[in-house]
Amino acid sequence: MTFFAKHYHPPGTTPGSLQAHPQRVRQACSLRLVRYDEPTLDVSEHAEFIAPADDGRLTWLHVQGVASGETLARIGDHFGLHPLALEDIHNAGQRPKVEEYDGLLFLILSLPRIQDDTITVDQVSFFLAPGYVLSFCDGPVNPFDPVLKRLQQRAGKLRSRGPDYLLYALLDTVIDQGFPVLESFGLELEDVEEAVVGNAHRATLARIHRVKRELILLRRMLWPQREVLNALTHQEREQIADGTRVFLRDCYDHTIQIMDLLETYRDMSVSLLDIYLSSVSNRLNEIMRVLTMIATVFIPLTFIVGVYGMNFDANNTSPWAMPELYWYYGYPLVWLLMIAIAVGMLVFFRRRRWL
Amino acid sequence: MTFFAKHYHPPGTTPGSLQAHPQRVRQACSLRLVRYDEPTLDVSEHAEFIAPADDGRLTWLHVQGVASGETLARIGDHFGLHPLALEDIHNAGQRPKVEEYDGLLFLILSLPRIQDDTITVDQVSFFLAPGYVLSFCDGPVNPFDPVLKRLQQRAGKLRSRGPDYLLYALLDTVIDQGFPVLESFGLELEDVEEAVVGNAHRATLARIHRVKRELILLRRMLWPQREVLNALTHQEREQIADGTRVFLRDCYDHTIQIMDLLETYRDMSVSLLDIYLSSVSNRLNEIMRVLTMIATVFIPLTFIVGVYGMNFDANNTSPWAMPELYWYYGYPLVWLLMIAIAVGMLVFFRRRRWL
Amino acid sequence: MTFFAKHYHPPGTTPGSLQAHPQRVRQACSLRLVRYDEPTLDVSEHAEFIAPADDGRLTWLHVQGVASGETLARIGDHFGLHPLALEDIHNAGQRPKVEEYDGLLFLILSLPRIQDDTITVDQVSFFLAPGYVLSFCDGPVNPFDPVLKRLQQRAGKLRSRGPDYLLYALLDTVIDQGFPVLESFGLELEDVEEAVVGNAHRATLARIHRVKRELILLRRMLWPQREVLNALTHQEREQIADGTRVFLRDCYDHTIQIMDLLETYRDMSVSLLDIYLSSVSNRLNEIMRVLTMIATVFIPLTFIVGVYGMNFDANNTSPWAMPELYWYYGYPLVWLLMIAIAVGMLVFFRRRRWL
Amino acid sequence: MTFFAKHYHPPGTTPGSLQAHPQRVRQACSLRLVRYDEPTLDVSEHAEFIAPADDGRLTWLHVQGVASGETLARIGDHFGLHPLALEDIHNAGQRPKVEEYDGLLFLILSLPRIQDDTITVDQVSFFLAPGYVLSFCDGPVNPFDPVLKRLQQRAGKLRSRGPDYLLYALLDTVIDQGFPVLESFGLELEDVEEAVVGNAHRATLARIHRVKRELILLRRMLWPQREVLNALTHQEREQIADGTRVFLRDCYDHTIQIMDLLETYRDMSVSLLDIYLSSVSNRLNEIMRVLTMIATVFIPLTFIVGVYGMNFDANNTSPWAMPELYWYYGYPLVWLLMIAIAVGMLVFFRRRRWL
Amino acid sequence: MTFFAKHYHPPGTTPGSLQAHPQRVRQACSLRLVRYDEPTLDVSEHAEFIAPADDGRLTWLHVQGVASGETLARIGDHFGLHPLALEDIHNAGQRPKVEEYDGLLFLILSLPRIQDDTITVDQVSFFLAPGYVLSFCDGPVNPFDPVLKRLQQRAGKLRSRGPDYLLYALLDTVIDQGFPVLESFGLELEDVEEAVVGNAHRATLARIHRVKRELILLRRMLWPQREVLNALTHQEREQIADGTRVFLRDCYDHTIQIMDLLETYRDMSVSLLDIYLSSVSNRLNEIMRVLTMIATVFIPLTFIVGVYGMNFDANNTSPWAMPELYWYYGYPLVWLLMIAIAVGMLVFFRRRRWL
Predict the structure, then answer these.
(1) E84 to chain D nearest CA, in Å?
(2) Cβ–Cβ gap E206/C197 under 8 Å
(3) Which of A135, A153, E83, E245 has the least C-beta neighbours within 10 A?
(4) Which chains contact E through at least 3 pairs of Cβ atoms less than 8 Å apart?
(5) Contact B313, B322 (CB under 8 A)
(6) Do C69 and C18 touch, CB atoms closer than 8 A?
(7) What pTM was estimated for this model as a whole?
């Protein structure tokens, strides 16, 4: 994830513009139209969308991938979507939000995804109106296949309920994607914790940084989802039936759980960095202390052997010229002296609890 | 406690599913049915629950341990519980919350427990409806035995009051479990404090980390209980009589006291880490300072003895070749010089308050 | 002050229990009954309390020290106090709060006290009802002697006003005890500041820690008093006349001033720890830098004298074997070389601003 | 950007004064008057402004650069502007705000601008009244040229809508200038991140500081814009039509996105400083550890060679006088001993994972 | 500024007492009475105040310096001021607040002042009632001279407006005194910043601490002014006309700007401390690294010269006894070996980027 992930038009551009972003990678974009009621279900996968026939069936159009400005404009014309909403879909990297344009509910959410050990966030957008739901996902993988399967298998009450319940099923799928992502984060943090408490390596620092960085960025993308679900749950809206509201409340609860986890992980990653730093410094301290003591024990000894390496005796003319050298037990006495000094220092260090 | 302690179904699963979690340890699950009014009390411990007879007595069903999906579904069918509530009981590790489904009050709380010096949090859930209270606890120990005893001993007003007062008694028991846990935390922190201020060991760091970690995780589990009790106390609810509300207020007060303690402990653990780090670094500094000074005193002395170990005198052809070696008092003078230098340095260090 | 200072009954105990706390030091408990109106005032100090005669005079019962469960129960029966309130008085260490039980106002406050240079917090509780005020203080010293004196000396309007004004006078006395405590804190902090900026000792760290610790604990005990006074001042209550409210507002203002001071002190103590750490590390750095430079200057010199201590000249068979030793000015030249190196290094260090 | 960027009159000056600020650089100030309706558009660039003729056309007066007190007073007189508003335009460096003076809406916003790699913030002010919009920008570059171009090219609905929509177009242009600025910040932060994780230099510290500093200052200037747009969007105002409100909501959304980015960047810059410090200290530790070990290995060896440099053998009169020197294999044995010690120490260090 | 700057009476004192504070420096206190209407203005400087004649003119009484308890009591009696308000004026060091006593508006504000490079805060208090304004300032300098001058010079609308506008003029003067103080802070911070980024000295630490300390204390005194102005502006009050409210809003805006600046400065001072610490540690690291490398290069060389200082050759009886000494090119070879080792180490250090 980059720090600035938003697409935008140059300041001063007419609102609702759908100019191409040259730096954006062009991805194939596919449309899938699902139309169903209790007894029947039709799925058509095709590049061109078909106008919803006035047969009273619910229409779900899903656009997967980065739609070109023209495609968006065409869909917008057909369903009467507001240009600002289309621009928000086009300029991916928006903050999750809920808006209402002329009776149409417009939603933007963030879909976190783990791909090859890195976390990416796709933008998912929804329109809800009587009789239809539009969904857009600009990632490479369609997150809504399980919902389609449930529709086809008639699992739960999806087939018998209105578009608001379909929207809930889609929202729920998007938000619950947070759990596997956060679970993998939790495991990574526990891994890092073990590494930190056990034996801290240099690489651990980079890991902690990576986790902190991803948490900060993920938090920016997921935090507003709580507000979105809150607004959806607690404000009266004609598009959403009371029976669906209780399910949305469950969904809202999940966004809070995700925020709680993100906060906990952040606290934890800060704590781990502290422990890492203390651990590294403790380890260095231990090494330096032992090494310095070895040096300190030898320094007076080296001085003593230096003393008796002096050449004052070379010309033996004075009784003051290093008489020790002429003592019978001079050499062993020096060794005794040195051993005494070394032992004395070690005892002193041990007493002071330095060793 | 692990960082990610929540059970969840794969995103896109039908809401209200009760699929088994393969990684979850299967525990024996026992049901206890208590039915009472002022004069009579029946307790039946059995695996199968009995339908509450319409004899006007209050029914309390308690499920201890991890109930299988089938058991939950059966209980749910019998009492008409909402599938989302059952899923929350099944997917343990939920955030404490209060919900209302069709006139039934549904509560999730966290029950902290000290087991073998580590802290675990069990999930406790309640349903409250006219005439009955259901309680679920997924831990190995039944926390509600004291309440049953009070019922049997007719202590207090428990027998003569309605299900809301029974619920209060259960809630109170769950929340008050926080006090012994926090008391043990307080003692541990005071222990750590003594260790830190006295003489900091490496192991102290791991202890501080363990305390911080457990506080962070405990906080995540206990913090929302305040909101739950607040919602229960301050919102008008038909299931809760006014006479019970004053008791719930006391309960709410306890959740605030627990949060206060958790906040204080967190501040304290941060402060202790600071003190630990300063203490360790102070100690190292003292050691290094003393050792470095020993070395620094000997370094010029070693240089001097080195000077008079040079062999310029070997061939005594020049009056400039180390004439000191030929002085009568050369050797004692060198000793005097060296003692003077050492004393001078020590005085200098002492003056500068380095020693 | 200990980290966990609350007394509590085991979880699951009947609410309103007054069981003895074995670990609590039994203190003598004394009751003082004051009954007065404008013209008359009776004070009776005795262990047993007398029922307030129906003579229209205001009754003030003050209980000093730790009252036994029986005493509390007797007082409770006499005045019709709620068992939960009695339990809160019995289980000292409660959070300050205001409660209303059946028209009786119940208040808990914290009374900070400096005793032998350490800070203790006593629990003070009040009941206010038409015609009487009950006060409880579980410390060894009666803080309300000045109020009694004012009553006896007819100072201010105390004698002519109702029980709400008496309650205000008592609250004001409790809250204003915060000022001398915080003043002594302020002086201690300024003392520490001087110590830190001047010359940091190891003992300063322990002082800073003690201040931070006491601030954290004091904050926990005093912070909720603000809410209590706020609730008392800004909510309509029948027990409190409008004329008294303006005085309570002054009292509330004092709790805010105390919180402001506590916050400022906390910021300050954090800042002082930072400065202390920087100061200590600056000082160590200076020492190490100077010592390391002394060593660094001597190291090449010691190498040089080592060179001319080698014995290649012992058998003078080769012109390549240390010819320097045979030069006429060899020895003085080596001295010159060494002085040049030492001076060169010092100049280099000075140039780089290392010295 | 300087820390204190506000212009102000001396305290006690009459409110609404327009005294010159001597320290302010005098810049040329130009006025541009645009008058248009659906079919016609007139632009007049001139130093003197013309009174808006009563022809029902919309008047937009834009003042670019630092207007003198006289110019401001003249414009104020003509349009009936409040002296406090004029003073706020004159005393640049104000906090963004929205005010209403006698039915006129007055707005101050901050316009961030990148110029030669440094960020500057210009003050932009607006007046909105029925029939006219006044705009002031005290920077050197006119940010509203794209809006004029859109007017001239009849792009979007600008020509057919009222002054509130023109105001929206201007506001949108000002706020969207935040995106390129934040994008460049994001790139700089990613650059710094790479530098920090790779190989930290001294210069990196200055870069991190510069980023943090600019973020703090930018945050102060941009944070209040959120409130301004919020007040504009969510309060009922007669000057703003409902159809424009949906566009202002989009604008408000952008201010939130900008605040989110600023917060994320701040968290990130804090994290980067932590990583930088750890990285630098890790690197130093590694160096010191290796160097200290080299020294530690040689210290005992140097002691040993010192031993056999002593002169006890010079007069070979005692069998105790360094007999090792007379052993046949004495010299190679010493070498073996020294190699054994060195290898032993290296093995010991490696075992302890110090190396 | 001291940490605890509040004057207070001993706890339990009768409210409204005006006892002298022995530690308070007695300052001369002067009263100035100004009475004016549109055409006339009288100023009388005297120690005794004159009762305002009932001639419909506006009365402004200003008390400069520390008024004695008697003076305050006399003024209080004359104007019917509440004893609690008088006590707040007497016990200087109060928190800014707004109170209403029987239709009189009472205000306390903080007046920051730079005197000899240190910042002091004076307490300023106001009473507003129909027909008169009382102001008290306990500092040595009268801050309201510019307002008197404006009255005398008939500048602005001061003469023609009511007492609420006079109060606004006084408030505005007090609050705007914050700007020069904060400007000088800003300059000091920029100075410190330059010092920190350039070359950090020990004295810089003390400067950063001084700035942080003063910011913390100033913040405590100025923060509540925002609330005061907010309450004054946004609550309906009979004493304040609607026409004055727009001016008070401007005043309120200034308090927000001051808080913004204080917050920014605080963030900045924290950031500067971080940079200072990193800078100092960077510098030390550089020194230590270079010095340690010098030592490390010489340590093996010193060992080698030690080897050839051994005396195994003294009695040349074994071919194993240091044969190197007898090689023809022994001495130069040793030099070559040592140079090779030194160069090798330097190359190694450079390769690892340690140098």
Answers:
(1) 30
(2) yes
(3) A153
(4) C, D
(5) yes
(6) yes
(7) 0.87
Of A205, A295, A308, the CB nearest to D296: A295
Tell me the pLDDT tens digit for each residue of E68-84. Answer: 888 899 999 988 999 99
For residue B85, what is the nearest residue in chain A, using CA coordinates?
A250
C246-277 pLDDT tens trace: 999 999 999 999 999 999 999 999 999 988 88
Q: Which of E23, E272, E274, E284 to mutate to test the interface with C (most CBs of C within 10 A)?
A: E284
Domain match, E322 and E204 both: no
Of chain B, the percentage scoring pLDDT greater than 90 comes to: 46
Among C280, C302, C336, the domain-final residue is: C280
Alpha-carbon separation of residue A194 from A205, A281, E241 (angstroms): 13, 17, 68
Mean pLDDT across the stretch D262-267?
92
Residue C258 shares a structural domain with residue C141: yes
In a domain, E35, yes or no: yes
CA proximity to C40, closest of C26, C55, C28: C55
Which among E4, E11, E305 is the nearest to C261, CB-wise? E4
Task: Indicate which CATH number applies to the domain containing C262.
Answer: 3.30.460.20
Q: By the 8 A CB rule, do A225 and A175 touch?
A: yes
In chain D, whose CA is at the least distance from the CA of E292? D291
- Of the candidates B246, B257, B271, the beta carbon closest to that of C95 is on B257
Q: State how far the Cα of B228 lies from the Cα of B225, in Å rounded to an integer.
A: 5
What is the percent of chain C with per-residue pLDDT over 70, rounded to a whole number?
A: 95
Q: Is B10 within a domain?
A: no
Asked whether the predicted pLDDT for residue A198 surpasses 80, the reply is no
Residues B209 and B104 in one domain: yes
Q: Which of D12, D205, D311 sits opposite E173 (nearest CB)?
A: D12
Q: What is the CATH number of the domain that holds C307?
A: 1.20.58
- D78 near D51, Cβ under 8 Å? yes
CB contact under 8 A, B280 and A275: no
**Cβ-based contacts under 8 A for chains A and B:** 180
- Per-residue pLDDT at A200 exceeds 70: no
- Under an 8 A CB cutoff, do D260 and A311 touch? no
Last residue of a domain, one of D280, D298, D330: D280
**What is the phi/psi pair of residue D60, to 5°?**
-125, 115
The residue written with tokens 């003249």 in the block is: D74
Assess whether B265 and B140 both reside in one domain. Answer: yes
Subunit contact A246:B82, Cβ cutoff 8 A: yes
Q: What average pLDDT does chain C have?
A: 88
C2 within some domain: no
pLDDT at A48 over 70: no
Looking at chain B, which subunits does it touch, using at least 3 CB pairs closer than 8 Å as the criterion? A, C
Read off the pLDDT of each residue in D170-193 and give the average, rounded to a whole number: 93
pLDDT for the residue E255? 95
Give contacts of A315 with chain B, Cβ < 8 Å. Answer: 313, 316, 325-326
Instruction: Based on the fold, state whether residues B273 and B130 are members of the same structural domain.
Output: yes
Instruction: Kindly list the partner chains of chain A, i.e. chains with 3 or more CB atom pairs below 8 Å.
Output: B, D
Dihedral of CA atoms B74, B78, B84, B89 in degrees, nearest 10, equals: -60
pLDDT digits (tens, 9 = 90+) for B178-204: 999 999 999 999 999 988 877 667 788
* Chain B residues with CB-CB distance to A187 below 8 A: 3-4
Q: Tell me the H-state helices in chain E.
A: 69-79, 83-90, 145-152, 163-176, 178-198, 202-234, 242-307, 330-351
DSSP, collapsed to helix, strand or coil, labels residue D246 as helix
CB crowding B165-174: b at 16 or more within 10 Å, else e: bbbbbbbbbb
Does residue E321 share a domain with residue E220?
no
Enumerate residue ranges in chain E where pLDDT < 50. Answer: none
ipTM at complex level: 0.84
Q: How far is E62 from chain C (nearest CA, A)?
A: 24
* C85 and C229 fall within a common domain: yes
Number of domains in chain C: 2
| Amino acid A52: pLDDT | 58
pLDDT-based confidence at A47, cuts 50/70/90? low
Q: So what's the pLDDT on residue A338?
A: 93
> In terms of domains, do B160 and B70 share one?
yes
Q: Is residue A149 part of a domain?
A: yes
Residue D174 burial (10 A CB sphere; 0-12, 13-18, 19+): buried
Which domain, by its residues, includes B343? 308-351
Give E85-97 pLDDT, tens digit per residue.
999 999 988 999 9
Asked whether residue D47 carries a pLDDT value surpassing 60, the answer given is no
Contact C146 E309 (CB under 8 A): no
Instruction: Flag if B298 and A295 touch (Cβ within 8 Å).
Output: no
Which chain C residue shows the shortest CA-CA distance from E211?
C271
